[in-house]
Amino acid sequence: MSFKNSTALLTVGFAALTAAPALADISADDIWTSYQAIAQTVGGELTATATRDGNKVLYTDAKLHFLIPDGKGSLDILYPTLSYTNHADGTVSMDMAGTHSYKFVITGPDKKSDQISANIISTYDNAEVIASGNPDDITFSYAVDSFAFALQNLDLGASGGNSNVELSLTGTGSAAQGSSRWTQGDLITLAGQSVISGFDYSMHSKDEDGAVSTTSATYGEMVSKSTITLPTGGMSIMNLAAALHDGLSIKATGTYGSSTTQESVVMDGEQVSSQTITTGSSTSAFAANAEAIQLTAEGSDIGMDVLINAGLSMALKTDIDQVAGDFRMPVSASGEPQDFTLALGLKGLDLGDEIWSMFDPSEVLQRDPATLAIGLTGQATLLQDLLNFTEMKELAEGNLPIELNTLAIKEFLISAVGASLSGTGNFAFNNDDLTSYDGMPAPSGSADLQITGANALIDRLVEMGLVEESDAMGARMMMGMFTVAGDGDDTLSSKLEITEDGQISANGQRLK
């Protein structure tokens, strides 16, 4: 997960765990009760000791405890002292002054040797967190001029390997503001929004071989919104399918400004490699409910410069105008086919001269930016809930509880080095026939393909010495078997058809 997305999620957590106009009085006790309800809903237990001093309430020794399924251990989060002030206007504020230390402890089956722990130290400049509303409908509003955090006291335990392994992480953020609303009824709903003006981090690590890696990154403005609904009866991480049927859902969106990431690796005092990655603006959206999981993302103006000094020194450069993806997968068992989507796109892939010169120093091939795109939709029948991990573990290897019913090729395009291949198609699948195609459901349907610049590309490959004349002739003969001449110069087309009785033809000529 990128720091952009993880920071957005942490911001929502900051509002929910640290922090509508006031509809009625609330108290620090109401806030703590809401925290405990959320923890219980996601399978955890939140405990603390409360002390009171006038209108102030302190929660000390606060701990959030989770058991890892199948007796694999536990996860504990130990919080700093949490200080709340009850106000006469019915609101509650949280004290964010000073340094806040959060300790994370992961314990395996062997409590003596299987334990990993670390502290996250955070500070906030001119931070304000105000809670208002009523006990079943609390809104947290927060703002901070800047914040900083650092990873400290990393302990990999007795089973953590080489004691020389090192890891440090620090980060800062500029002005941030947002809100988070918690409501409780038949479901618990958490709705949040945040804006962070900027963010950066630096990470230093050393592996067991002595290689030292240093990474630094800077991100522009990040805007996020999310809504999470949780079933009040609790849920098990091993059976999220049940939780989804009980009302669990997630919806999150984010927009992000430009970013720059730099990384270098040093071994024995010598730089082995370095790279710089830059990105323009990007967006993301995620949704999960009982019907499906869907993730879409898009990024622009991506650049990568890589310098490799190990062995043969190389300087590599790549630029990409746009990267986009869309993935939707049903997750709940149903007797009826359900829609799915898989789309990936890469536009304007421009390789630097250093890369081209490795295999085409004479510049025979066209060097126009490449485009790769695939867009698939279809329907599939799920025979089992995919997120019931307990049942999924019992399936025989390779036995997926999914039947593919239909597949539509909405877009298929490969365009590079002066040639292109594109196509569309529609297919249906007979899941009662698993013998005709060696275990694959028998397909029927058709696809239309278009090829441009293929003969010119073959000529260039022959000129470069990468393809022999005899092989080029064989390739042209093969294309002649499956294609017909198109409307333009050096264009070919083909219509491939598969009938329900298993016949295969190309442009009306039967192949099987």
TrEMBL record:
UniProt keyword terms in alphabetical order: Signal
The source's domain of life comes to Bacteria
The signal peptide, as residue positions, is: 1-24
Q: What is this protein called?
A: DUF2125 domain-containing protein
